[in-house]
């Protein structure tokens, strides 16, 4: 989920020359089991005949009941399609796959084999298990989504395909009070089209249909016990967009490559921008330079909070903030054929409770009631209107707007470049572990 750079911070950015200034059965043998007397099914018919003959003398025929074999439940060994098997069943004992581990280099090279650092890593076993489970769920759901998403589907259908898969694989459908806080969606599934770069998901009644000419950013999060994996990719169905997607994918990978302990985020932004803006794309006979969207950033992730305290710009800046051991970062980059600058636009769908807000005396009863629902079901995890509809809330917009106006809930409007332009996004979550950098959400797809 994208973080928006503060407006004041833009003044300190050193954007490369040429950039425009405006711009996540059977028992096996098929036979009947033996009865208590040790005889199998074949002896039952003889026993029945003898019993009938004996009872015939008294005129009372009795039938002997046969026992039905008990079917043993098979333990799933592979994911279903659509994905509905809990990932914890596929990986008993919590032995979830690791992400891509990259050894540190230069002054941090010693960390890979240092005993003290290895001990610190071992102490984080629960932390790593939660993250790896969330990452595996993200991989399985997104790879299924990439296979089945096609032009002609509604955005609502696509979002629910992804969200239903995540909930099924975590084993938490989020319908019971507090269930969504245990595991499930880390934030709503974003499906931003064309010039819209981020934070768009359909509200109830949305009839928008994915078209073949569209470029769609698919951005969703998965959490387990508040450990959020944030990863995104872009889908396009026309080859004319290939260079745009390649530019952004390579820029994200460049940012991941530069990330590590003591890396300065402003310098990472410079590498991202240089990689991104080395590309140009020809669309319908016109050539466009690919620009980094300079007021969007990557970000740290905290427990139950998708946007932490550190940002990773995607253009060069003077920000000397360092990455540190134990940090969790979402490295995400956005490229555009437009101005390379986004503004709020369109109907709001994303919201999140502000973790830092002080007590506010609410006078509107609907706002008080809704705040209680948000606290019990989402806490500080982002949610959307469809999630409120799903748990049975009605006529909540007045109360929701009141919470936003009082600063208790933050609204995240869609972020858009100029109309007619195209934007793309790729993103991974990385763990800055004591011994290695782990790209936790890495998969065969990207």
Automatic annotation (TrEMBL):
Superkingdom is Eukaryota
EC main group: hydrolase
Read off the CDD domains from this record.
Answer: MetAP2
Give the principal location in a single coarse category: cytoplasm
- For bias type Low complexity, the affected ranges are 18-30, 50-60
**So where does a divalent metal cation 1 get bound?**
219, 230, 427
The entry's a divalent metal cation 2-binding residues are: 230, 299, 332, 427
Residues making up the signal peptide according to the UniProt record: none
Keywords, sorted A to Z: Aminopeptidase, Cytoplasm, Hydrolase, Metal-binding, Protease
What the record notes about the co-factor is: Binds 2 divalent metal cations per subunit. Has a high-affinity and a low affinity metal-binding site. The true nature of the physiological cofactor is under debate. The enzyme is active with cobalt, zinc, manganese or divalent iron ions. Most likely, methionine aminopeptidases function as mononuclear Fe(2+)-metalloproteases under physiological conditions, and the catalytically relevant metal-binding site has been assigned to the histidine-containing high-affinity site.
Kindly state which reaction or reactions the protein catalyses: Release of N-terminal amino acids, preferentially methionine, from peptides and arylamides
Q: Which GO terms describe its molecular function?
A: initiator methionyl aminopeptidase activity; metal ion binding; metalloaminopeptidase activity
Where is there biased composition of kind Basic residues?
61-75
Give the matching InterPro entries: Creatinase/aminopeptidase-like, Met_Aminopeptidase_Type2, Pept_M24, Pept_M24_MAP, Pept_M24A_MAP2, Pept_M24A_MAP2_BS, WH-like_DNA-bd_sf, WH_DNA-bd_sf
EC number(s) stated in the UniProt entry for this protein: 3.4.11.18
Q: Which SUPFAM superfamilies match?
A: Creatinase/aminopeptidase, Winged helix' DNA-binding domain
* A biological process from GO: proteolysis
The record's annotation in Gene3D superfamilies points to: Creatinase/methionine aminopeptidase superfamily (3.90.230.10), Winged helix-like DNA-binding domain superfamily/Winged helix DNA-binding domain (1.10.10.10)
Query: Which ranges carry the Peptidase M24 domain?
Result: 131-341
What PANTHER family does this protein map onto?
A: METHIONINE AMINOPEPTIDASE 2
Q: Which family does it belong to?
A: Belongs to the peptidase M24A family. Methionine aminopeptidase eukaryotic type 2 subfamily.
Q: What does this protein do?
A: Cotranslationally removes the N-terminal methionine from nascent proteins. The N-terminal methionine is often cleaved when the second residue in the primary sequence is small and uncharged (Met-Ala-, Cys, Gly, Pro, Ser, Thr, or Val).
UniProt-recorded name of the protein: Methionine aminopeptidase 2
């Amino acid at each position: 989920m994208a973080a928006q750079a503060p407006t004041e911070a833009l003044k300190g950015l050193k954007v490369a020359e040429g950039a425009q200034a405006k711009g996540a059965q059977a028992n096996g043998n098929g036979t009947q089991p033996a009865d208590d007397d040790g005889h199998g099914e074949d002896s039952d018919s003889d026993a029945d005949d003898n019993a009938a003959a004996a009872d015939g003398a008294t005129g009372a025929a009795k039938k002997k009941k046969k026992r039905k074999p008990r079917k043993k439940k098979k333990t799933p060994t592979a994911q279903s399609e659509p994905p509905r098997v809990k990932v914890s069943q596929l990986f008993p004992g919590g032995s979830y796959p690791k992400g891509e581990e990259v050894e540190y280099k230069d002054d941090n090279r010693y960390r890979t084999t240092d005993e003290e650092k290895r001990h610190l890593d071992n102490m984080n076993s629960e932390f790593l298990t939660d993250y790896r489970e969330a990452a595996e769920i993200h991989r399985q759901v997104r790879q299924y989504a990439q296979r089945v998403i096609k032009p002609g589907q509604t955005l609502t259908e696509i979002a629910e395909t992804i969200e239903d898969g995540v909930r099924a694989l975590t084993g938490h459908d989020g319908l019971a009070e507090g269930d969504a806080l245990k595991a499930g969606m880390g934030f709503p599934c974003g499906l931003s089209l064309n010039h819209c770069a981020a934070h768009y998901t359909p509200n109830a009644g949305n009839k928008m249909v994915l078209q073949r000419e569209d470029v769609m950013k698919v951005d969703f999060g998965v959490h387990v016990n508040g450990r959020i994996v944030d990863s995104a990719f872009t889908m396009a169905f026309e080859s004319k967009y290939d260079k745009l997607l390649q530019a952004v994918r390579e820029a994200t990978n460049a940012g991941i490559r530069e990330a590590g302990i003591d890396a300065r985020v402003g310098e990472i932004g410079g590498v991202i921008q240089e990689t991104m803006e080395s590309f140009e794309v020809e669309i319908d006979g016109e050539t466009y330079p690919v620009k980094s969207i300079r007021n969007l950033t990557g970000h740290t992730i905290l427990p139950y909070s998708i946007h932490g305290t550190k940002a990773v710009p995607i253009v060069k800046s003077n920000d000397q903030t360092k990455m540190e051991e134990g940090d969790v970062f979402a490295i995400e980059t956005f490229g555009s054929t437009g101005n390379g600058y986004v503004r709020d636009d369109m109907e709001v769908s994303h919201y999140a409770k502000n973790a830092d807000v002080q007590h506010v005396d609410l006078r509107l009863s609907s706002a008080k009631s809704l705040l209680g629902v948000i606290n019990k079901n989402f806490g500080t995890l982002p949610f959307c209107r469809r999630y409120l509809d799903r748990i049975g809330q009605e006529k909540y917009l007045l109360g929701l707007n009141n919470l936003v106006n009082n600063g208790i809930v933050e609204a995240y409007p869609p972020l858009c470049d100029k109309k007619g332009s195209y934007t793309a996004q790729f993103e991974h979550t990385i763990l800055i572990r004591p011994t290695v950098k782990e790209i936790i959400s890495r998969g065969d797809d990207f």
